[in-house]
Write a structure and sequence with these properties.
Elements (H helix, E strand, L loop, with lengths): L1 E6 L4 E8 L7 H11 L3 H16 L2 H8 L4 E5 L8 H15 L4 E3 L2 E4 L12 H9 L2 E4 L1 H7 L3 E5 L2 E2 L3 H11 L5 E10 L1 H6 L3 H6 L28 H8 L11 H13 L3 H11 L12 H13 L3 H12 L18
Parallel strand pairs: 2-9, 3-4, 3-7, 7-9, 8-9
Antiparallel strand pairs: 1-2, 5-6
Helix pairs in contact: 1-2, 2-4, 11-13, 12-14
Length: 335
């Protein structure tokens, strides 16, 4: 069962869908959510439309819109490789701008154990511990932007609220006037407390193996501007070979799937995946992803277009920033 609702206060929440019972969820919505989490651009756009609609119905935000006050939009925190919520944020921003709403963008930076933990399978205590190890902050130039402004933080789902609390703490120590968290799904407190791994059930509803990702990498001839953006969840899902979730196949099967998966991808996509593994997020030095990266490297070496591919890789490596502070708000490893 779902309903649309808003909670008002400083740091209030907006939900396109308030989940008060899983049995009543629309199967189509669950499928769309699952595909969005793994980078499907069409599902991302559909969810963004609903989130944007919920945003402009918020009384606090509507007053600012009517006064033509700038609204500062950001996604949940990430390091180098964007999250699924970043893709939603991009689309929400486009929709707000198309309605002549005055917005600006910032990036909430993240460092810590973000390339290690499988967040969707954690319980409430594990999520809180993981979040406590993360360094979340806002860069100097972006701090200037949010002074006296309303900050809109866009994310895909709120479960235990661990990430939200961390961002709330960060914003409380800035000169921002107010902030609002906008989600597609908010799980009710009972579900979030007793079964936070429900998030993984939603995430994996449509995606069981890496081969299920192949349709998302196809071209969209009817919409040439639409393309999959490799997010951190997709990258972890591709590279990790040991099972972490009840949905995961065994390591041997995963490695065989990876060989088929990589062979089905074109050079450009393989290059994007390679570049993302070598981002400052640290995937390339994490043992958890070493076997997946080895299979990726083997596929690269077998490609007949190795020379052209190598030039793409070297040009990217020369542009990697030395620190997160050098990343621009719109920076993406996978342009």
């Amino acid at each position: 069962m779902t309903s649309t609702g808003t909670i008002f206060s400083r740091g209030s929440k907006i939900a396109a869908k308030l989940v008060v019972g899983l049995d009543g969820l629309d199967p189509y919505e669950i499928t769309m959510f699952s595909k969005m989490k793994y980078g499907d651009p069409i599902s991302t756009k559909r969810i963004a439309i609903q989130v944007a609609a919920a945003v402009i119905q918020n009384k606090n935000i509507l007053k600012r819109i009517q006064a033509n006050e700038p609204i500062i939009v950001t996604s949940s925190a990430f390091g180098s490789v964007p999250t699924a919520s970043y893709a939603i944020t991009r689309e929400v921003s486009k929709l707000l701008q198309s309605a002549n709403i005055n917005i600006d963008r910032i990036k909430i930076m993240r460092g810590g154990d973000f390339a290690v933990s499988h967040y969707g399978t954690m319980n409430q205590k594990e999520r809180a511990l993981s979040m406590s190890r993360r360094n979340i902050y806002i860069g100097t130039e972006d701090l200037k932007k949010i002074k006296g402004r309303l900050v809109l933080v866009v994310d895909d789902i709120s479960v235990t609220g661990s990430h939200e609390k961390k961002v709330h703490q960060v914003l409380s120590n800035t000169d921002a006037n107010d902030w609002v968290f906008a989600y597609y799904y908010i799980l009710n407190k009972k579900i979030a407390k007793l079964s936070p791994e429900t998030e993984e059930d939603l995430n994996r509803a449509e995606i069981k193996t890496v081969l299920d990702l192949l349709p998302f990498f196809r071209a969209y001839p009817e919409n040439p501007g639409i393309k999959l953006r490799i997010n951190s969840r997709v990258l972890k899902f591709i590279l990790a070979t040991e099972p972490e979730s009840k949905y995961d196949v065994d390591a041997f099967t995963k490695e065989e799937h990876l060989k088929v998966f990589f062979k089905a991808l074109d050079d450009e996509t393989i290059a994007k995946i390679y570049r993302s593994t070598n981002s400052s997020d640290g995937y390339s030095i994490n043992k958890k992803y070493s076997r997946g990266i080895r299979i990726l490297n083997e596929e690269i070496l077998q490609r007949s277009s190795l020379d052209r591919f190598f030039s793409k890789i070297t040009s990217f490596l020369s542009s990697i920033p030395d620190s997160l502070e050098q990343l621009q708000p719109e920076y993406e490893v996978i342009n």
